[in-house]
UniProtKB/TrEMBL annotation, chain A:
Residues 99-134, 144-179 form the EF-hand domain. Pfam families: EF-hand_7 (PF13499). The lineage of its organism: Eukaryota, Metazoa, Chordata, Craniata, Vertebrata. InterPro entries: CIBP, EF-hand-dom_pair, EF_Hand_1_Ca_BS, EF_hand_dom. One of its GO terms (molecular function) is calcium ion binding. This is EF-hand domain-containing protein. The keyword NAD does not apply. SMART domains: EFh (SM00054). Gene3D superfamilies: EF-hand. The keyword Magnesium applies. Keywords: Calcium, Magnesium, Metal-binding, Repeat.
TrEMBL record, chain B:
The chain crosses the membrane at residues 116-138, 159-182, 197-215, 285-309, 333-352, 364-384, 443-464, 543-564, 600-624. Residues 666-743 are annotated as: Disordered. It is found in: Membrane. Residues 434-506 form the TMC domain. This is Transmembrane channel-like protein. GO terms for molecular function: mechanosensitive monoatomic ion channel activity.
Amino acid sequence: MGGSASQLPKEQLAEYQELTFLSKQEILLAHKRFNELTKDERNPPTRVPMDKILALPELKSNPFRKRICHVFSTSEVKDGSLTFEDFLDLLSAFSDSATLEIKSHYAFRIFDFDDDGTLDGGDLEKLVNCLTGDTDDTRLTQEEMRQLITNILEESDIDKDGTVNLSEFQHVISRSPDFVSSFKIVL
Amino acid sequence: MVVGVLTPEELEKLKEAVDERKKLITTLRGKPWPMMKKLQTLKESQEFVEKYEGALGRGRGRKLYAYKVMMQKKWMKFLRDFENFKTACIPWEMKIKDIESHFGSSVASYFIFLRWMYGINMILFGLTFGLVMVPEALMGRPYGSIPRKTVPRADETSAMDFAILWDFGGFAKYSVLFYGYYNNQRTVGWLKFRMPLSYFLIGVGTVAYSYMVVIRKMARNANEQGGGDDTSFNFSWKMFTSWDYLIGNPETADNKFASITTSFKEAIVEEQENRKDDNIHLTRFLRVLANFLVLCCLAGSGYLIFFVVRRSQKFALAGLENYGWWERNEVNMVMSLLGMFCPMLFDVISSLENYHPRIALQWQLGRIFALFLGNLYTFIIALMDEINLKRKEEEVIIANMTLWQASLYNGTLGENNTTPVITVDPADVPRGPCWETMVGQEFVRLIISDTMTTYVTLLIGDFLRAFIVRFLNYCWCWDLEYGFPSYSEFDVSGNVLGLIFNQGMICDERAAPARLHVPAVLGSHVLQRPPGAVFKASGSNNFYMAMLLVILFLSTLPAIYTIVSIPPSFDCGPFSGKSRMFDVIQETLENDFPAWFGMVFSYVSNPGLVLPFLLLMILAIYYLHSISKTYKQSNLDLKKKLQTQNEENKKKNKRAALKAATELEEARNTLQEQQSQSNNNASNRGDRRLNDSNGTTNQIENGHTAKNHCRPPYPHRCMDRPSVPRGPGMPGYLPGLPHRPAP
């Protein structure tokens, strides 16, 4: 199942090909990179801790890296650690051939900082802060933040309940020409 | 489990269940489940399918069924392998991914566009090369056998000079590259290859193929986009889609953060400014002034080109040897320089106008477009003049030919009918001016000089600039990297425009009779910053596709005009001797097709049939346009309806909640009263009262619970509407309500 064996058995490879949007080469590359994360340990665990995943160059500069790990992690303690299969799920959702539905579904979950199933004002505020960087001169003022969130809710909240839910989010995203090409991570 | 004989209905049901499972397996990868769950479902479904597929196949045609299933599996495997192979074969995929991670996806989109155009050009080149150049080179008459294929005696000594070859004269002119070389024999070689027909059809075919490819891409993009209004989600898109997940470089990430912040701030400010507009008159005046200046620029550049082309004609008449390099290449250099400086001028002028950046960009692109078209058309008109000149020359030469031929037979005039054929070396035959080759040469020169100018400006403008900035920065007073002049930004839109114009010129040159394909310009973008504003140039943006289409159309217009109205030269090219180039079609129809075909064709091309057809198409377009308008309108109506319904629901729920709260209050009050009463008369009334009050309290409680049922955590309306099945996504279930995610 990833960790200790350095080779993926063939049936498993075929199954992964069936269940993800990745090609054979991509799965093998993912396997190699995943093993490299724990190559220094004598008994590499099946579940890699979050800080090692965050050190990957593809994720290092991403402001949403912690959320991505939390969303794709299947650990019971919710610590953001990933198994190889979680890693494959991640790469599949972010791959080139993934469908719009699956990308928008995971994007919604990533942006939902408090995991309550909707994007409310608090989620949107955290989202904006992630996007504008950490330094003081790039942050938005309170006034601007309020104005921004009002505008966004005005645009996307169709039923005016003060939150953006999954179907509203998908409606907005499906009209965007940039989403599919920018929501991509490739090893 | 052994399945006995099944009735046909059960068989049907089983088959349906198996098919459903198979469909589930294929759609598993699109489900947002964790891998464990997907694996489990996969295993279960596969077991189910395997178990019952055997049962299905029992009885009639079991072997056939099993065979079919096996073939299907093999086919899926083959498809999957083929997909893997195809992705491995895409050229430059790794490099583009590299660029994506360093510079973001908008820069990479330019290169993807470039790659797409390169692919198209390669296909067109392959067609031309394989079906026009190769047959003539292999099966046509060799070099030197007939006059049109030989360098004239007068030019022989200079035919190999590099300067002449660079100018596409000399041996380059008399080769398969140019129109003039081709012989007008109807068929060549043992294959009976119809050369002139092939030339004509390939010319038309390449243009048609270009159109088809562009339109198909546009249609595909329009489908993907959903075709809705694209500015209504401005802020949401900035929020949800502006981060580029491919960025792996911390420097790029910082740039991206800065640009996202600026775009947020700008959008907020602009939104506020839109609410107030002051001094509209000054703005309007400035805009009119700017447009006037731009018109002057365009007119000026058009006149300059015209003047320069006239001058080059004079030089040509006086003999090119007397003039230096500048005079010989004046036209091309002027056009390229104009193309370089005018856009900068437009940029400066547009600062007067004070538009929103996206609108300003569209104006800028529109103006550059107009500049390019103006230049191209002035150039073509000047060329037309030259063509007319050459045709007059041709008439003179035809007259001279008869005199020259007579002079050959000087000594043998005494013979009667059977004059012996005097062999003349092809190099000595007087040559007509081949205007088609001349046009081809002009375009080729133009494209090459344009390419050279682009390279030179890239070198000087960007490379040298970056060089200076990087090294002088150490010893300069102000920070060169942040202030002026800094590194140049990768101007995606400008570069894409350049690409499109190049393609337009190539198209023109292809439709005109030269046969050279110059691949698109690949500049070196090493030392350029990635752009701040997100500007997608990839095929997903229909704006660039539309421009490409318009340029193709406008470039082919002059070519079509020449084909239809000007007679070809009398002694060069595959159409020599005919009165119009498209006569070759007529000839082919008469000679190679059965008689009835020609009749049918003449009926179909009757204007009486073509005009109603055109009318029908126009009506269809109008109908589709009005349908799309009604769809948009009904969309808006539905949205409004959804909103009002939700508001109504909220109000009703509030009212219901209030009503229930007041009733609860009343019930509590009555209960308290009754309790106090019963306490007072406890001894007298005893259990009966207690029972009563219990009964009433029970009643009240039941009433409460009944009312509570009407007030579930979700603000549904009940008791007023007939019960409708409720579930997520079904009608009647309001969106925006928290519900448990589907299992």
